[in-house]
Amino acid sequence: MKIPFIDLKTQYETHKAEINQAVLDVLDSTQFILGPNVTKLEENLATFTGSKHAIACSSGTDALLLALMALDIKAGDEVITTPFTFISTAEVVSLVGATPVFVDIDETTYTLDPKLIEAKITKNTKAIMPVSLFGQCADMDAINAIAKKHNIPVVEDGCQSFGATYKGKKSCNLSEIGCTSFFPSKPLGCYGDGGAIFTNDDALAHKLRTLANHGQEERYKHKYIGTNGRLDAIQAAILNVKMKYFQKEIELREKIGARYGEMLQDSHVITPKIMDDRTSVFAQYSIRAQDRAALVMALNKAEIPTAVHYPIALHEQEAYAYLGYKHGDFPVSERVASEIMSLPMSPFLTQEQQDFIVQNIKEAI
After folding, report:
1. Which terminal Cβ of the chain has fewer Cβ within 10 Å, N or C?
2. Residue 186: per-residue pLDDT
3. What is the per-residue DSSP string for 52-105?
4. Which domain holds residue 91?
5. Distance between CA atoms of residues 174 and 150, nearest Å
6. Residue 118 in this model has a pLDDT that exceeds 90
7. One domain, residues 227 and 272
8. How would you classify residue 324: left for phi > 0, otherwise alpha for psi between -120 and 50, otherwise beta?
9. DSSP characters for 304-329?
10. Which tens digit of pLDDT belongs to each residue from 252-268?
């Protein structure tokens, strides 16, 4: 049985005529950067999240980078975040010259543990950046309360959770700034790189939009040192088509994720726990296995693709050796990193495919 890890092919074939026409319309218009498609996307994104402002940009990484730039975070500053995430979360902190300060994760949700944050706050802490991992939001109320107490802004890294909810509110509209990614494999993905930044603050929105266009408020008048963070019109056009069907795809993801959980409950693997006050878009369906290598080998032998998100916590990456952390500093992150693995997940995963995956997991275990 041929099972793709993420079934982008079926998704494209389902909406092929509409997507192709949208791309051709951009080519005919010759408006390739910014323009009406990007404006329309920003309106759609703002409406979807309930945010006052949505600023489309060139990638999820650039969204995070622009957020820190807009908050004037610089050398000597510290940003609290998680060591269990893709490197871009910490990378952008380093790129603005600041220092990432890691806090361990909650073992149930794999997101930043609020109980551990306050002990890491110093006079140099200028932001807290929780990651809404694998499709589920972090405990944003608890994190926001700590941040408010210390007058620190919160930037939600929602690059894996666009479409998820926390207490009825949408991811990316849960703090001062929210960021997401439209990398092709994300729940809402384009056909290249893309991202977006969300805020309800008018001044921040203006600054973010300016920074993403080389810091210019009007042509050749540069208020800030910015960057080229613009989203191209073809990607915006593709996303506008996909957004029409996104809510339905979220519902399918939730259904498939719940079915995985039911079928695997007696299989001796740890399945994702979605908190009662949250929903997940299951950007990945990630389980934990004590003998991950053996399970991966067995599934790959059955031609079932797997992935590991993420095998090495950031504090143990060579790039962050200069921070001086050592093995044992973040035991939950380290334990999860040694056991985590992701199974095929997309709105187009069939019951037959899912049955085959689960059967092989149970046989391997």
Report:
1. N
2. 98
3. SEEEEES-HHHHHHHHHHHTT--TT-EEEE-SSS-THHHHHHHHTT-EEEE-PB
4. 8-243
5. 18
6. yes
7. no
8. left
9. ---B-S-SS-GGGSGGGGGG---TTS
10. 999 999 999 999 999 99
**Residue 2 falls inside a structural domain:** no
Kindly tell me the number of DSSP H helices and DSSP E strands found in the chain. Answer: 12, 13
Joined together, the tokens standing for residue 311 give 């095998």
259 within 8 A of 320, measured Cβ to Cβ: no
Q: Which two tokens stand for residue 299?
A: 């599934």
Judge whether residue 1 has pLDDT over 90.
Answer: no
Task: Work out the angle between the directed axes of helices 246-263 and 351-364 (0-180°, nearest 10).
Answer: 30
Q: What is the mean pLDDT of residues 83-112?
A: 98
- Residue 3 falls within a domain, yes or no? no
Tell me what percent of the chain is helix, strand and coil, each rounded to the nearest 5. Answer: 40, 15, 40
Token duo for residue 29: 């218009």
CATH of the domain at 277: 3.90.1150.10
**Using CA atoms, how far apart are residues 233 and 108, in angstroms rounded to an integer?**
39
- Give the separation between CA 35 and CA 33, rounded to whole angstroms: 6
For 49-76, how does the pLDDT look when each residue is reduced to its tens digit (9 = 90+)? 999 999 999 999 999 999 999 999 999 9
